[in-house]
Amino acid sequence: MVSYTLNKVNIEKNKYENSVVLESLEKRGARYFLENASLLSFSPDGKKLLFMRKNEESKEEELHVLDLATMSSKKIFTGKNILQTSWRDSRILALLTVRRREDEDLFFEKEIPVWFNEEGFKDSPKNVVKVLDVESTQVLDEFEDELITSIIWLEGSLIYTKALREDPFKYMDIFRYEEGKKEKIFEKVSFYPVDSEGSSLLLLGKPQKRYHHEHDFVYLWNGKDVIPLTEKYGLNNSFGISTEVWVPSIYPSPKLKEGAVYFLSLSEGKTILERIREGNKETLVDEEFVITCFDASKDGKVIFTAVSPTSPVEVYLWNDGKVERLTSYNEKVAEIMKIVPLRHFKYESHDGLPIDAWYLRPERTPAPLIVFVHGGPKGAYGYINYFLGQLLTSNGFYVLYTNPRGSNTYSEDFADVRKRTGLEDFQDIMEGIKKLLDMEDVNGDKIGITGISYGGFMTNWAITQTDMFKAAVSENGISYWFTSYAFSDIGYWFDKELIGENPMTDENYRKLSPIFYAQNVKTPILLIHSLEDYRCPLDQSLMFFTVLRDLGKEAYIAIFKKGAHGHSIRGLPRHRLKRYRMILEFFKKKLIEEKPFDIDEVLKKKEDRS
Questions:
Q1: Band of residue 56 on the pLDDT scale cut at 50, 70, 90
Q2: Is pLDDT above 60 for 320?
Q3: d(CA 223, CA 217)
Q4: Could you tell me which of 301, 237, 246 has the C-alpha nearest to residue 266?
Q5: Tens digit of pLDDT for each residue in 243-266?
Q6: Domains, the chain, ranges and CATH?
Q7: Rounded to whole angstroms, how far apart are CA atoms 514 and 479?
């Protein structure tokens, strides 16, 4: 039996509808649906399924347990801000929650950050861990602490990870909790528990990182020693490829089953599913696609979701060396999209460094080109059919994706662009454009550029450094690194490492900020931002827009009233539809039709669902 969450768009109601699907591996196609629900996990004995429902009236979250023998379910817990759950056995469950002050008039803080992306204002949070008996629904134990990021059972003890405030994405302490007593078992480490079995704890990260661009590897703790499992192979085992609309609800992490360790290795724009068993590493799946989520069974089967250049995301089964597709939910989507082949090429940058790139060719050429820049900087493009790129190609554009230095899926050295952002990585992108111009029938006078987050920064940077681009769409990007340091939820540590240790005196905060080169801009630009973005806050686009307009440059800004940093993929359906239309129409007007951009034309198309 396998289970997964199915997410559907309801454009009429402007919402997403989730269903938990139970599917038999013995009777293929036999499926049971739990509507308005999201999957959490099976109990360790495989006899129960934990799932969650959101109460639309009370806005509370409800935990339910489904008995797989009787297919009857019961509600076991109701509360707010449930972050994580972990089974000890078939009866005992731990919950990680967060409690805030929730004063009706104000937020109050004495620590930074004041807010956090997708969470909102922190409001002096405390994490509360509850231990629940799912049969009686009674809370058996409860404790609280700050900055708890994960919980997992190890035999009879609860292991929890606590981020250190000085650099919460890099340093953590790990505690063992049992019968009201806490014991610190790891101090200031850069790994965290992802699975357990017997007395073994599976860890992802590093014993201690110096910098954030370093990879995550897999380790096993046997209660005494931390044993490195994947460090020697040099590939990142933490997910970090742009999946766009195919983003999973939960990112994949290594699994420990019957002593075997299953994990993903990221390599040159793809994921490799691997297993270490009895000390030997085996490659299970190495195809030109991206696995977005997976789980393994005790008998060695692996269920996973994957997206490829020719197929939207579906559910697959790996069993005894063979891969079988189990679902076809998105076949109609693929037919409507009329997916254009994704073509891969490699090129040498200005200093001889090899760079991966992919492109889409439109039906008719010569044609204008749109250059995409991924986020990160340690993001990556790969073997995926990106919806926006397909949309642009179907409307007559070439589309180019590159993985410049700084990208994921390569070496740690390749990922290091500290204090050099916008310099060599920008040259890598420009060299990729030149290579494509040599290879294909691209109209070199009609090139646009776009990107989100770090890609938005690079879009802002590009139009201040060259006149090559005749149109630009910058989304949720950085224009001034100093205000990013002071305003972003992660700026006080991320920017200090990426740009410079002392924001008050380091010249990089000005030297590498696009806003100080705004006078050079000749490219029409559309800035798109979301009001609830606390990662790259609204000030970044608003400042750049204000300066550009004050200088008499052609610039437009669209501010979505809802949505966090990832609003392009997690915003409400109509929100996302308007975004697609804006980007498409802006590039069409500037690079094909050579007409003024009119936002009212875009908004009038709301009844057209094509």
A1: confident
A2: yes
A3: 19
A4: 237
A5: 999 999 889 999 999 999 999 999
A6: 2-236 (2.130.10.120), 237-339 (2.120.10.30), 343-607 (3.40.50.1820)
A7: 5
- Per-residue 3-state assignment (H helix, E strand, C coil) for 424-491: HHHHHHHHHHHHHHHHCCEEEEEEEEEEECHHHHHHHHHHHHCCCEEEEEEECCCCCHHHHHHHCCCH
What average pLDDT score do residues 511-531 get?
Answer: 99
Contact yes or no for 50/63 (Cβ under 8 A): yes
Q: What region does 540 belong to: left with phi over 0, alpha with psi -120 to 50, or beta?
A: alpha
Dist CA 476 CA 489 (whole Å): 14
Strands laid side by side in the 82-87 sheet: 82-87, 92-99, 126-133, 139-145
Beta carbons of 502 and 568 less than 8 angstroms apart: no
Q: Exposed, middle or buried: residue 283 (CB in 10 Å: 0-12, 13-18, 19+)?
A: exposed
CA-nearest of 527, 244, 571 to 389 is 244
Band of residue 608 on the pLDDT scale cut at 50, 70, 90: low
Give tens-digit pLDDT for 399-434. 999 999 999 999 999 999 999 999 999 999 999 999
In the three-class reduction of DSSP (H, G, I as helix; E, B as strand; rest coil), residue 272 is classed as strand
Q: Which of 162-166, 205-209, 213-217, 541-545 has the lowest mean pLDDT?
A: 162-166
**Are 39 and 32 in contact, with CB atoms under 8 Å apart?**
no
| 96 neighbors 83 (Cβ within 8 angstroms) | yes
For the cut 80, the answer to whether the pLDDT of residue 76 exceeds it is yes
* Rounded Cα gap, residues 212 and 236, in angstroms: 12
Please report where in the chains the tokens 């609204």 appear, as a residue: 538
Identify the CA nearest to 475 among candidates 372, 354, 321.
372
DSSP class of residue 243 equals -
**Whole-structure pTM value:** 0.96
Residues 6+ apart with CB under 8 A from 82: 52, 61, 63, 95, 96, 97
Backbone angles phi, psi at 362, to 5 degrees: -75, 170
Angstrom CA distances, 428 to 54, 318, 346, 448, 521, stand at 46, 37, 12, 16, 21
Which amino acid makes up residue 554? E
pLDDT of residue 26: 85
State how far the alpha carbon of 256 is from the alpha carbons of 55, 132, 193, 200, 503, in Å.
34, 24, 11, 9, 43
CA-closest candidate to residue 166, choices 134, 186, 190, 183 = 190
